[in-house]
Design a protein that fits this description.
Chain lengths: 207, 771
């Protein structure tokens, strides 16, 4: 009910999906620095990594990690190829990593300016806040919902700022784009707040 | 018709009917093509023949779905696999969508006995530490989602390691996680039928199920399904042969009845003429049923074609009937040439009895018995049931005119020289190999289908079909250990580039000895916990996370070694059982190769290994066929000598013998030359057809020669031979239009033979009437 109210409220605030679509569209090649935090039930603490995300002209998505180790993951079509250091390349079909496939799909849709298309697979809700907007995607398909609780994209104006991917078991990944959070911030609540748009000062007390 | 002949006719029919039911119940009809393959002599040949039709690989059907856009094809492919997985006609169905060779849950702890990861360096602190470092990095990589669930149970990722090792080295292209052809236009699948390849009924059932499931999966789309594989071929051949045999059989029967009516103007003759033929068929079947366990479908179809020429025997009798002569008297008159002809034809077919090919021996048995029975019934039974004769074939104005005209034709004895020279030239000039040695070409499968099959096999990256390495041992373990010892040499061949990769059952099922070695090298419960504690220092994982890992290793230490029986019902079972099997009390293991680039180098690197045989299946099969043919030709030579002897005994004069043999010899030459000029390489079925044609030629010549210079007799003989050759030509010309290559080969060869033999016998064997 609440979601419905939110989605209904969008036109009133003036920012529609079409407007956002137009703002988010990017022509390849695009390179954006990122910082990732992985919160997993198998990890004692968040795993932080950083590098660049690239949308290449040949439509490949490339994620290059430069810290704390070096790795390059290249997504072409249905396959992800991973090279890490001297190790032989690993190739995995995206069908085997449904979470990643969904994430990449929505990512691509945003870059291509086709956010509307996402409503085929997701309940898409766009909400406007004082400091920006949040696009929330909840899978419609029960099979997909097994892997993914929701994706939230937080941004302001024409820039997505942070991606929040939450899995049903509570594991989550936060991806900060363009801006890197202070290295001293490492707890999940603090990083989540930051991702959702709080200024570092506001989040500061949770350091 | 007298009361006596009426009773006799009735008795004959009753015996035929009873015989039909007796034979029908006892006969087992087989579709095993191996019945038509030569008897193997060497180990390689035995494996070759054995592997055809028996191995699980031969039960594979390759499927291609095309005719729609890729998304739709992928959807149909997935729906079809789901449907076939629960169909009882199929063992399994794959389209690439599966994660590969997954290890069943109950077998998972065995991974520590199967994996080679800890052979060089045991599972120690260093190995664990490096694995945990890797996993920590994985948690920040796109693979995190996939690996997280495995991490507690399998921190060294042995399951993934084995799955990637077992993956075919080159997989077809994938679209939407489904196999596709390289051009993306055909979705590819592989299924295994439960029915054996040479069980055409089972295969037909499976195909019907496949087609109906496909129709359901396809829905409203325009996609079409293409099937290929041994099983599909055997079903196709059976149905096609049956359909065409019925079609041609019906057409030929109608035409024959019309011809008989036209020739003898009484339908009675058409019906009576069928009696020796039916007797021949039944006697032949009974003989085969007694001498062999099962009869091949081809033997039947083919045998009846060969026996069909026995239709000539009653025609000879009918054409020679005279108004004031008892038919028995007439029969006595035509008996000498008929007897000689039948005897010599039977001798020729007897050569095939000794061919070493079960199917041919059956064919010979069927034909010889059939022809002999047809001749004997024509001589002794048929005349007793004919009844009164009202017509003499000699009393025909047009026949007389024709006879005179033929008499005026020149006797082209020059042909005796011209034909052999021309044929020799044609034979020498032809580029085509004289004999067809390619085993795949000997099957009755249309070449185009075989070509399509090869394309599909290449797309699906199935292992090389030509080269194999076979390891032989006293038992399963012996073979597995031997296979393991080959790994160094095989890896060398991969490194040197002579092959892309290889596969053998010990990669899935290591020998007990190797499993025990790995088992003793695994740390115990306390030891592993200590190692883990030390290794996870400084890592982002809590040591208690790995309790399932510790449990699996501890379990693996106590497990009885994995045996092939444990694999039953898993996808691994297929991989192992198709390449590890017992035959004739010995165990064999097969190493298959992918991407063979330098067969000679490969053979060189493997030939010195004792107990292992490098097999070139193509060479082995060609050798086998060549040896078989050489043997059959020797038998035929012997038969030819015997045949000349029989004719000599019958005619006792060199000039007569030459006159009788010439048309047949020249026609045989002509047929061979004609086939060669039109680019046909000869195979076994051509050889049999040549014998059939030669038998006909001999009959024609014997009768023409026998008629000597009596005008009425000449007219009657001409009448008989016109009817005979026309009827035979009719039947075989029809066969020449068959779409089954074997039937077509026979049809063309014999049609040519009838024409050549009739004309040459007419010109060379017939004596010119002295005016």
């Amino acid at each position: 009910m609440c979601l419905l109210a939110l989605s209904l409220s969008i036109p009133a605030h003036g920012l529609g999906i079409e407007d956002l679509e137009a703002k988010l569209v990017r022509k390849p090649p695009v390179v954006t620095p990122f910082v990732d935090f992985r919160f997993s039930h198998v990890l004692k603490a968040a795993a932080r990594s950083s590098g660049t995300l690239e949308y290449r002209e040949d439509e490949a998505l490339v994620r290059t990690v430069t810290s704390p180790f070096r790795e390059q993951a290249e997504v072409m079509g249905d396959e992800v190829r991973i090279r890490r250091g001297e190790r032989p390349e690993r190739r995995v079909s995206l069908q085997r990593i449904p979470q990643l496939r969904v994430l990449l799909g929505s990512f691509r849709a945003m870059l291509d300016g086709q956010v509307g298309r996402l409503s085929q697979d997701f309940n898409v809700v766009l909400a406007e806040q004082a400091h920006g907007w949040t696009l929330t995607l909840r899978p419609l398909d029960a099979k997909l919902a097994k892997y993914l609780a929701h994706i939230e994209v937080h941004g302001s104006a024409d820039r997505p700022r942070c991606l929040e991917v939450v899995e049903p078991d509570g594991d989550a990944t936060l991806t900060f784009l363009d801006t890197a959070p202070d290295e001293r911030i490492s707890t999940r609540p603090a990083l989540e707040k930051l991702c959702r748009g709080a200024t570092p000062e506001n989040a500061g007390h949770e350091r | 018709m007298s009361r006596r002949s009426g009773l006799l006719l009735l008795a004959w029919c009753v015996v035929l009917g009873a015989g039909f039911f007796a034979v029908q119940g006892r006969l087992t009809i087989s579709a095993d093509l191996r019945l038509f393959m030569p008897t193997p002599h060497t180990e390689a040949q035995r494996l070759l023949v054995g592997s055809i039709g028996e191995s699980p690989a031969s039960r594979l059907e390759l499927l291609a779905i095309e005719g729609s856009e890729p998304h739709e094809l992928a959807r149909i492919s997935k729906a079809l696999v789901t449907a076939l997985e629960s169909a009882r006609e199929f063992e399994w169905a794959v389209n690439g969508g599966q994660a590969g060779l997954a290890i069943e849950e109950r077998l998972l702890p065995y991974r520590y006995l199967i994996t080679d990861s800890f052979d060089r360096q045991p599972l120690d602190q260093a190995q664990l530490a490096s694995a945990l470092t890797e996993r920590a990095q994985d948690m920040s990589s796109p693979l995190a989602g996939m690996l997280e669930e495995w991490l507690p149970r399998d921190p060294t990722l042995e399951t993934l390691h084995l799955m990637s090792q077992w993956q075919p080295p080159k997989e077809p292209r994938r679209i939407e996680d489904v196999w596709f052809s390289a051009d993306g236009r055909r979705a590819l699948l592989v299924v295994e039928t439960r029915a054996a390849a040479f069980d055409p009924d089972g295969q037909t059932q499976a195909l019907d199920r496949l087609r109906s499931e496909f129709a359901r999966a396809r829905g409203a789309s325009s996609a079409v399904l293409d099937v290929s594989g041994s099983g599909y071929f055997s079903s196709l051949i059976k149905n096609r042969t049956q359909r065409e045999a019925t079609l041609f059989g019906t057409a030929a029967t109608v035409a024959l009845v019309l011809l008989m009516w036209f020739a003898y103007r009484q339908i009675r003759f058409a019906l009576l003429g069928a009696l020796p033929l039916l007797s021949a068929g039944l006697a032949g079947l009974a003989a085969v049923g007694m001498m062999f366990e099962s009869v091949h479908g081809i033997t039947l179809a083919f045998g009846f074609t060969l026996i069909g020429v026995a239709q000539d025997y009653p025609m000879h009798l009918f054409s020679h009937l005279r108004v004031h002569q008892h038919p028995a008297e007439t029969a006595r008159g035509v008996w000498p040439p008929l007897r000689t002809g039948v005897a010599s034809t039977c001798i020729a077919y007897l050569a095939f009895l000794e061919s070493g090919v079960t199917g041919l021996a059956q064919l010979a048995c069927l034909t010889v018995t059939g022809l002999a029975v047809a001749a004997v019934t024509t001589r002794y039974l048929l005349p007793q049931v004919i009844g009164s004769v009202t017509r003499d074939s000699a009393q025909s104005a047009w026949l007389d005119r024709l006879n005179l005209r033929i008499d005026r034709l020149p006797r082209p004895f020059a042909l005796l020289a011209i034909i052999p020279v021309a044929c020799a030239a044609a034979l020498l000039m032809s580029q085509q190999p004289f004999w067809q040695n390619d085993l795949s070409r000997l099957t009755p499968v249309p070449v185009e289908l075989l070509r399509k099959d090869a394309v599909l096999r290449q797309e699906l990256a199935t292992p090389d079909l030509r080269y194999l390495l076979v390891v032989t041992g006293r038992d399963e373990q012996d073979v597995l250990e031997h296979l393991e010892s080959l790994d160094a040499a095989l890896a060398g061949a991969v490194r040197e580039g002579s092959i892309g990769s290889y596969d053998h059952p010990a990669r899935y099922l290591p020998s007990v000895a190797r499993q025990l070695r790995r088992q003793t090298a695994l740390p115990d419960d306390a030891g592993l916990r200590n190692l883990l504690a030390a290794a996870s220092e400084g890592q982002p994982f809590d040591v208690t996370l790995f309790a399932p890992f510790v449990a699996d290793v501890v379990h693996a230490r106590a497990l009885p070694p994995l045996m092939s029986a444990d694999l039953a019902g898993t996808p691994l079972a297929l991989r192992v059982s198709s390449a590890l099997f017992a035959r004739d009390g010995r165990w064999h293991g097969i190493v298959s190769f992918y991407g063979v680039r330098d067969a000679a180098a490969l053979e060189q690197s493997l030939h010195a290994i004792p107990g292992a045989t490098f097999l070139d299946l193509k060479a082995a099969s060609e050798e086998l066929i060549a040896a078989q043919r050489a043997h059959i030709l020797r038998c035929l030579e012997l038969a030819a000598l015997l045949l000349v002897a029989v004719i000599w005994l019958a005619l006792r004069k060199v000039s007569r013998v030459v006159r009788v043999l010439m048309p047949m010899a020249l026609t045989t030459l002509l047929i061979v030359a004609a086939l060669r000029v039109s680019g046909v390489s000869l195979n076994l079925f051509h050889l049999i057809s040549l014998v059939l044609a030669a038998g006909l030629g001999l009959d024609y010549a014997l009768f023409f020669e026998h008629a000597a210079d009596d005008a009425d007799e000449q007219r009657r003989t001409l009448h008989a031979l016109l009817v005979c050759s026309l009827s035979t030509l009719l039947v075989f010309a029809l066969l020449a239009f068959s779409t089954v290559p074997v039937l077509q080969a026979i049809g063309v060869t014999v049609s040519l033979g009838v024409l050549g033999n009739f004309l040459l016998a007419l010109l060379l064997a017939r004596e010119r009437r002295r005016s």
